[in-house]
Amino acid sequence: MWAEKYRPKTLDNMVDQAEIVERLKSFAESKNVPHCIFAGPPGTGKTTAALCLSRDLYRSGYREHVMELNASDERGINVVRETVKTFARVRSIGEIPFKIMILDEADNMTSDAQQALRRTMERYTGTCRFILIANYSGKIIEPIQSRCAPFRFSYLPRAEQDRYLKSIAETEGLSLSEEGLDAIFEVCGGDLRRATNTLQAAASLDKPIDSKIVFSIAGKANPGDVREMMETAMKGNFLEARKQLRDMILKYGVAGSDLVRQIHSESFRLEVPEQWKMKLAEIVGEIDYRLVEGSDEEVQLSALLAKLVEAGHELGKER
Amino acid sequence: MKDVVGNPEAIQKFASWIRSWEKGIPKKRAAFLYGSPGVGKTVTVEALANDFGLELVEKNASDYRTEDAVRRFAGLASQYNSLFGRTRLVLLDELDGLTGTADRGGVKAITDIVKTAQCPVVLISNNAYDPRFSTLRRYCILIEFKKPAASEVMKHLKRICLAERIHVEDDASKFVAQRSGGDVRSAVMDLQALTQGREGLSYDDVNWLAYRDRQETIFTVMRMIIYGKTCIGAKRAVDMADIDRDMLFEWIYENAPSHLEDPHDLVRAMDALSLADVYRGRIRSSQNWGFLRYVIDHMTAGVAMARRNAQPTGWIPFRFPERIRLLSISRAERGMKLKLSQKIKRKCHISARRASKEVLPYLSTIFKSNVKMAAGLAKWLALDPEMVEYLVGNAKNARPIINMLSQE
Questions:
Q1: ipTM beyond cut 0.85
Q2: Are the beta carbons of B175 and B203 closer than 8 angstroms?
Q3: Distance (Å, rounded) from C-alpha B98 to C-alpha B77?
C-alpha cells in the first residue's frame, strides 16, 4: 500500500506537525525520551511520528529496541501483565539504555489494563519508555496522563496534504487534477492515510484522477452512511432504510454502538422541528441502554427508523 | 439390519463396536450416532439389538430431563445385566431435547454414566458437535449417519408399496423421495398420507405437494398475527407455527413492516417487536424463561394491535427472513475478513479492526480494477489465492492476479 510505501521514515521527512517534530527531534538528539502520549484524529501522523522517532534514535538497530503493540486488538489486562512487562523489564544493550514500547490505539485499552500499565510504566522507566497513541487522550486514565508528555496532533492543512499527494502522484506517474485534489480533501478531510488509500484506489483505475473517480471510490469505501439511511427513513421508505441498516451491520460489520453514536450526532443535524430532536435523543438513549443490556442491534435501531418514518410523515402534513 | 436404508459404513462401524463387547468392555463405552432427522439412527439401533438379541432399554430426552432422572434411569440400566441374563443395550435418544441450563446437569450425568458403563450405551442426537457435548464426545465412538440418496429412499418406498400391495408409478415415488431430501421417515409418512384409502398413485396425485410446502403453515400463522383482530387470536398463532420462537420472531420482524402502510401503525409494531427483543435479552441474561410469555405477547399481540389506521391493501407476499439468509452468508465472509485484516495489520501498523474498516474497501477496489497493482499488493501482504479471490469478488477475474503471483 502506498500509505506504507510513502510513510515518512525519518522525522525530517514528516509532513507538517512542525512543532511536534521539533520537540521529537530534540529527544532524538539528546538520546532521551520521556513517556509520551500522541493524541489526535486518525491519519495525522501519530504512528508515523513514533516510528520515525524510534528510527532516528536507534538507526539500523531499531527493530530490536522497539515493540509495537496495538491495544485495540490486544486490549486486556493480560497483555499488559505478560507481553508488555516482559518487554519492558529487560535492559537493552547499546548506547541508549532504554527501549521503546509503542502502544497504538491505547484509548481502547480497558481501564483495568491501563491501571496495570501505570505500575509497569513507573517501575521500568529506566529500561523502557512508552509512547501511547490515542484518538482521544481523555480516554486515558488521569494517572497515566500525568506521567506522560502530551503531544496533540491535528488534521493536516489542505496545502500540506496536497503537496504530499502531488509528490506521490509525480513518483507514480499519475495524472492528478486540482479538481481531484479538491475531491480527496472533501471526502478525507485531513486524514492522510485515507487520502493516500483513496489516491491509490483511484490510480488503480488507470485513468486521470478527477472528482468523479474520487467520489465513486469514496462511495464504495464508506457504505456506512448513517445520514443517508436516516433520510431514506424520513422520506417514508422504511424497508429501504432497514436494508441499509442491515448492510452496515452484517456486510460491513459496523458495531451497533458506533451506529448509535453516529445516529445520535446526526439526529441533531436533521431537518426536523427542535422538539423532535429531543424526542429522538430520548429514543436513541433508550436504545443505547438496551444494546448494552444485550438486545439485538438491528431490531432496536429499526424501531428508531420507524420513528423517523413517522417524523417525516408528520412534517409532510405540516407543509 | 439389512432393511435399514443407506449408510452401510456407519452401520458396519456400529455393528463391529457392538461385537467388541463380547470380548469385554471396549475403550469407548458409548457410541454417539448423529445425523439429520429421519436418516435411520434410531431404527439402526433397534434393528441391531434385534439381530444380536440384546435387550434394548430406551428413553427419549423428553422422558428424562434432570440430572437425577438420568441417574435413576440410566445408572440402573447400565450397571447390571437384565433379569433374563441377556446383555442390555441402553439407548438415550434425542439428546438435542436436553436444552437450556436446567438440563446441563443432565449432560453431565450422562457423561458420568458413559464413563462407568458396564453395557453398551448408545447416544443419539442430530448434532454431535454442539458445544454442550464437548466433554461427552471424548468418551464416545462417533458415528455419522448421512442422508441416503434419493434413489435409495425410492427403493425403500417401492419395497413398502410392494408389501402393502399399492401400485405406485415410478415418477410418483421418485418425486416423494426427492422431496424428502434424504429424510426417510418423512418420505414414508408422505407416502402413507398420500396412499391412504387408495390402491394406486400416479405422478399427478403427488405433484401438487410441491405447492404445499412447509411454509404454507407459516403463511397462515403470519396472517393470524399481522392481521389479527384479537390478542388471544394472535397469541394462539405461536402454537400453530412449527418453527421455533426465534425464527417466528424473524418472520414477523421481516414481514410486518411491508404490511403496515400507516407510519403510526409501523411505529407501534416496531416498538412492540423491539420490546419483545428486550425481553429476549432479559431471558438470556437472567436465564428466566418465564419472561418468554412477554416476548410472545409483544411479538404477536403487540404487532396485531399496532394496526389501527391501515387497512389490508391488496396482496403482499410473505418473505423468508432476509436476515437469516444474510447471516449465514456473512459468517463465512466475516472469517475471511478477519484473516485479511490480520495480514494488513502486520504490514500497516494499524489494528485489525481499523484495517477491515479503512483499508479493506480500498484494497478491494484495487483488486477489482488493476491486475498489476493487485499482484504487487498480494505479494507484499503475502495473500493466498483464496484471499485474492475474495477481494476480486470472483474466481475468473482473480486468475490473472494469481498467475502473475505464481510466475514470480
A1: no
A2: yes
A3: 19
Beta strands in B179-238 (DSSP E): 200-201
Upper half-sphere CA count for residue A214 (Cβ side, 13 Å): 23
B390 touches chain A (CB under 8 A): no
pLDDT digits (tens, 9 = 90+) for A163-182: 999 999 999 888 888 888 88
Burial (CB < 10 A; 0-12, 13-18, 19+), residue B43, is middle
Nearest-CA distance B82 → chain A (Å)? 51
Tens of pLDDT, residues B134-165? 888 888 899 998 888 888 888 888 888 888 88
- Reported as half-sphere exposure (CB side, CA atoms, 13 A), residue A266 has a value of 15
Which has the minimum average pLDDT: A125-134, B95-104, B149-158?
B95-104
Sequence-ordered alpha helix ranges (H) in B317-394: 322-348, 352-354, 360-369, 371-381, 385-392
Taking the CA atoms of residue B102, residue B108, residue B111 and residue B115 in that order, the dihedral angle to the nearest 10 degrees is: -150
Write out chain A residues lying below 8 Å of B357, CB-based. 252-254
Cα dihedral A53/A57/A61/A67 (nearest 10): -50
Grid coordinates of A316: 409532510
Question: How far is it, in rounded angstroms, from Cα B380 to Cα B361?
Answer: 17
Q: What is the pTM of this model?
A: 0.54
CA–CA gap between residue B118 and residue B257 (Å, rounded): 59
